[in-house]
Amino acid sequence: MIDRCPGSDLVEGALLSRAVSALALLALGIQLSGCANIGDSFASAAFVDPAKYDMMDCKQLEAERKSLAARTAELRGLIEKAKTGSGGTVVSELAYGNDYISVRASTKLVEENWERSKCVASAVVVTPAEPAAPAVGARKRASVAR
Question: Cα-flanking dihedrals φ and ψ of residue 6, to 5°?
Answer without folding.
Answer: -65, 135
